[in-house]
Design brief:
single chain, 361 residues, mainly alpha, 13 helices, 0% strand
Amino acid sequence: MAKKRNSYLDFVRGIAIYCVLWGHCIQYGMVNGGNFFENPIFKFIYSFHMPMFMLISGYLFYDSAKTKNISKLLVTRLWSLGIPLFVWGCVPKILKWILTINKLEHSSLKEKGFELIGSMIEGITGLWFLWAVLVISFVASFAEKVRFGGVKHHLAYGVILLGGYGFIYLMPGKENNLFMYPYFILGCWTNHFCLWNRKYNIKIKKVCVILYCGMLVLYIKFFNMFSSGLLIMDESKPLIERLSANIYRYTIGLVGSIAVLFLVELIYNSKMLVCSFKVFIVYLGTISLQIYILQRYIIEKYGAKIFMYFVDYLGKNIFVENLLVYNFIITPIVAGIIIIIVKEIIDVTQKFGISKYLFGR
């Protein structure tokens, strides 16, 4: 019997995936219109949304880890994450390599092979969040299976988690993977110790809301390094600056996630929330992985190029002339339209039974 889904977490993921599209619309729409890195709404979204997604991923992963043996757990993760990574990350690169192989006629077979492998790795890490979840899941799978059984098992659990940093460091996309690793493990701990619903946590959640508001003001004003990678590896900056930036980003990512989860929980439980809207957002949460993949092509790859040609034709970007209108009217509406289009595409794949072969579910 299929396990009942957590509709609250699906609601959160529905809101979060909309924020992903909103953020990308802001980013790719600011062609010749300023630096999106300095856009305050973009900074707000990026301060919490991917850490929150990773916390939820760890939280839900723990449910699977409790009920499945190690082999079944790993196979399940490989299918659910490996299939979309291969289909959407590797296959396009393989096809492109086949079509352009004649241009490599002066290269040896070995060089052509390395070119293909490098291209496939680039495609996989392009879907960096899925790749990060898969890599981290391998470490967490072994760690969770030795957690129980006394002091020795807890020591082994700690050793595996610490050793996981070395394993993750060796994997492609190490900056993003290492940055997200602690959030995933915190998600597992939150589930294991039942931390979210404890009575005293309401005070902590309220404090996090206040603290996040204060941190966000400073973050928007002073921090310009906030993409998902681990900045400690960016040797172009002084070590102290890198350390302080990472500590701040880790903290605001955690505090912001708790604050947003709490506020969304209040909205979810509100009697004023329109039922049909709630059902729609929950459904978006159930297909958030598919939306994440398809938006990469619709917004990041082809939409961005088309919009760039349009801006070049006009000679200027008229959409960013008023930043308030751009941030709060244009980009939210565009994100909403795209998410509806993507939803319809996903519904078609499910109707014809091909979704599991394209998205692993």
